[in-house]
Amino acid sequence: MNPKALWQISYGIYIVSSKKDGKLNGQIANTVFQITSVPATIAVSINKKNLSHECISDSKVFTVSILSEQAPMSFIGTFGFKCGRTLINSRV
Protein backbone atom coordinates (compact mmCIF):
# COMPACT_ATOMS: atom_id res chain seq x y z
CA MET A 1 0.00 0.00 0.00
CA ASN A 2 1.21 3.48 -0.80
CA PRO A 3 1.41 5.35 2.53
CA LYS A 4 0.71 8.63 0.71
CA ALA A 5 -2.78 7.31 0.00
CA LEU A 6 -3.50 7.56 3.74
CA TRP A 7 -3.03 11.32 3.52
CA GLN A 8 -5.92 11.48 1.02
CA ILE A 9 -8.46 9.99 3.41
CA SER A 10 -10.91 12.52 4.76
CA TYR A 11 -14.68 12.69 5.07
CA GLY A 12 -16.11 11.64 1.76
CA ILE A 13 -17.61 8.84 -0.26
CA TYR A 14 -15.72 5.63 -0.95
CA ILE A 15 -16.24 2.37 -2.77
CA VAL A 16 -15.27 -0.60 -0.61
CA SER A 17 -14.86 -3.77 -2.67
CA SER A 18 -14.04 -7.39 -2.02
CA LYS A 19 -14.54 -10.81 -3.59
CA LYS A 20 -16.14 -14.13 -2.86
CA ASP A 21 -16.08 -17.32 -4.91
CA GLY A 22 -14.38 -15.46 -7.76
CA LYS A 23 -17.11 -12.79 -7.89
CA LEU A 24 -16.47 -9.13 -7.11
CA ASN A 25 -18.71 -6.97 -4.95
CA GLY A 26 -18.54 -3.31 -4.00
CA GLN A 27 -20.56 -0.83 -2.03
CA ILE A 28 -20.62 2.84 -1.17
CA ALA A 29 -19.27 3.72 2.27
CA ASN A 30 -18.72 7.05 4.00
CA THR A 31 -16.68 5.81 6.94
CA VAL A 32 -13.04 5.07 6.18
CA PHE A 33 -10.26 6.33 8.40
CA GLN A 34 -6.62 5.83 9.24
CA ILE A 35 -5.88 4.07 12.52
CA THR A 36 -2.07 3.95 12.41
CA SER A 37 0.66 4.96 9.99
CA VAL A 38 3.15 2.25 11.05
CA PRO A 39 2.01 -0.26 10.17
CA ALA A 40 -0.35 1.37 7.68
CA THR A 41 -3.81 0.45 9.00
CA ILE A 42 -7.26 1.71 8.08
CA ALA A 43 -10.76 0.95 9.33
CA VAL A 44 -13.97 0.78 7.32
CA SER A 45 -17.53 0.60 8.55
CA ILE A 46 -19.61 -2.07 6.82
CA ASN A 47 -23.09 -3.25 7.84
CA LYS A 48 -22.87 -6.90 8.92
CA LYS A 49 -25.98 -7.71 6.86
CA ASN A 50 -24.36 -6.51 3.60
CA LEU A 51 -22.83 -8.92 1.12
CA SER A 52 -19.66 -6.81 1.27
CA HIS A 53 -19.20 -7.78 4.92
CA GLU A 54 -19.56 -11.45 4.05
CA CYS A 55 -17.04 -11.12 1.20
CA ILE A 56 -14.51 -9.30 3.39
CA SER A 57 -14.94 -11.80 6.23
CA ASP A 58 -14.48 -14.79 3.93
CA SER A 59 -11.65 -13.50 1.72
CA LYS A 60 -9.85 -11.36 4.33
CA VAL A 61 -9.16 -8.73 1.63
CA PHE A 62 -10.78 -5.49 0.54
CA THR A 63 -10.00 -2.37 -1.44
CA VAL A 64 -11.00 1.23 -0.86
CA SER A 65 -11.39 3.73 -3.70
CA ILE A 66 -11.77 7.41 -2.91
CA LEU A 67 -14.45 8.99 -5.10
CA SER A 68 -14.04 12.43 -6.58
CA GLU A 69 -16.52 15.14 -5.67
CA GLN A 70 -17.35 15.16 -9.38
CA ALA A 71 -18.31 11.46 -9.45
CA PRO A 72 -21.66 11.26 -11.26
CA MET A 73 -24.68 10.08 -9.28
CA SER A 74 -25.24 7.32 -11.86
CA PHE A 75 -21.80 5.88 -10.98
CA ILE A 76 -22.47 6.17 -7.24
CA GLY A 77 -25.85 4.51 -7.78
CA THR A 78 -24.18 1.45 -9.27
CA PHE A 79 -22.62 0.74 -5.89
CA GLY A 80 -25.13 2.39 -3.58
CA PHE A 81 -28.65 1.75 -4.79
CA LYS A 82 -28.45 -1.92 -5.77
CA CYS A 83 -28.24 -5.06 -3.68
CA GLY A 84 -25.14 -7.16 -4.34
CA ARG A 85 -26.94 -10.35 -3.31
CA THR A 86 -29.67 -9.76 -5.88
CA LEU A 87 -27.16 -8.98 -8.63
CA ILE A 88 -24.99 -12.04 -7.89
CA ASN A 89 -28.01 -14.36 -7.74
CA SER A 90 -29.41 -12.97 -10.99
CA ARG A 91 -26.13 -13.79 -12.81
CA VAL A 92 -26.09 -17.44 -11.71
- Based on DSSP secondary structure assignment, what is the total number of beta strands? 5
Radius of gyration: 14 Å
Number of distinct helices: 4
Alpha-beta content class: alpha+beta
Kindly report the spatial arrangement of strands forming the biggest sheet.
Answer: 2-1-5
Describe the structure.
With 92 residues, the chain is an alpha+beta fold. The chain has a three-stranded antiparallel sheet. A two-stranded antiparallel sheet has the order 3-4. The relative contact order is 0.22. 32% of the residues lie in helices and 29% in strands. It starts with a helix and ends with a helix. It contains four helices and five strands, in the order αββββαβαα. The chain is globular.
What's the gist of this structure?
With 92 residues, the protein is of the alpha+beta class. It is built from 4 helices and 5 strands, in the order αββββαβαα.
